Amino acid sequence: MKAAMLRSVLKRSCSTTVPSASHVMRRGFSSESSPERKVAVLGAAGGIGQPLALLMKLNPLVSKLSLYDIAGTPGVAADISHINTRSEVAGFMGEDQLGQALEGSDIVIIPAGVPRKPGMTRDDLFNINAGIVKSLCTAISKYCPNALVNMISNPVNSTVPIAAEIFKKAGTYDEKKLFGVTTLDVVRAKTFYAGKAKVNVAGVNVPVVGGHAGITILPLFSQATPRANLADEEIKALTKRTQDGGTEVVEAKAGKGSATLSMAYAGAIFADACLKGLNGVPDVVECSFVQSTVTELPFFASKVRLGKNGVEEVLGLGLLSDYEQQGLEALKPELKSSIEKGIKFANQS
């Protein structure tokens, strides 16, 4: 596949931005037309990390791409560095090189940790990934405390609160700069809705709020555009499929992986939105799991306006249907528990 075709994937943003995509994605994007931006990917040799690193290499807003993992990164970095796009690529391996990987980063994307496998519970995932996230965030607070942090490592409902507590302990916490990446929920909701409504997916927008696991994922199909007259049962089925999207892929891969490719795409889309915000592009709006007062919960996913400081504004939920209102109330106890679990882990260990 030609490089230009590969780069075009980033044009299909799930943001509500209306940039001149053909301009920002054109070949030969120079440093004169965009600020220098360093992006670090932690877990870059993994199942999500490798395709995510590839997609970030294709993003013309990135000038330096730093790839870190505990093993295998030099090979990934060497491979990706041969791609003829703007960014300079460097690979770092092992804890002793983590600081060097992070220094000067504008955005740190964290897909590190283990993926979900068939039969694996969220507790299983938590027990492994929580410690990894804690260690990485401790390093971030030391080496690039002002970076925007895009958390992909699951369970996001707990790892984002862990990160917040680690940053608080280090005295570097800025709620405007910590994001749980829930973009894959939006990507799935758009895809499934477009298929059912028989509309062009490129023009579809569906806000997804709540959290990033199971019933805490609440797609607001009543606010989807373009409007489609779908029956209540169809909306319920779309909601359930969006909530179970990860399980659908895990089962389809039959023990040989999770939703690595679609997650990498979603992570690249969200990072692109963050870069545009940092660069002053107006009206960049994405759904993300952030510190929030939209509900009584301390963290919540909703539409967020991105800007030069990260979060410019956390937007409200808007008008919900009765079904969505019920879903909102139903998700709160589970999301509250996941948040508290993350906070407890960060403060006890």
From TrEMBL:
Protein name: Malate dehydrogenase
Assembly, per entry: Homodimer.
Keywords assigned by UniProt, alphabetized: NAD, Oxidoreductase, Tricarboxylic acid cycle
Residues where NAD(+) binds: G43, A44, A45, G46, G47, I48, G49, D69, N129, I152, S153, N154, M263
Positions with a binding annotation for substrate: R116, R122, N154, R188
Protein's UniProt keywords contain Oxidoreductase: yes
Residue intervals of the Lactate/malate dehydrogenase N-terminal domain: 38-180
CDD domains hit by this protein: MDH_glyoxysomal_mitochondrial
Top-tier EC class: oxidoreductase
GO biological process, one term: tricarboxylic acid cycle
EC code: 1.1.1.37
InterPro entries, alphabetized: L-lactate/malate_DH (IPR001557), Lactate/malate_DH_C (IPR022383), Lactate/malate_DH_N (IPR001236), Lactate_DH/Glyco_Ohase_4_C (IPR015955), Malate_DH_AS (IPR001252), Malate_DH_type1 (IPR010097), NAD(P)-bd_dom_sf (IPR036291)
Family designation: Belongs to the LDH/MDH superfamily. MDH type 1 family.
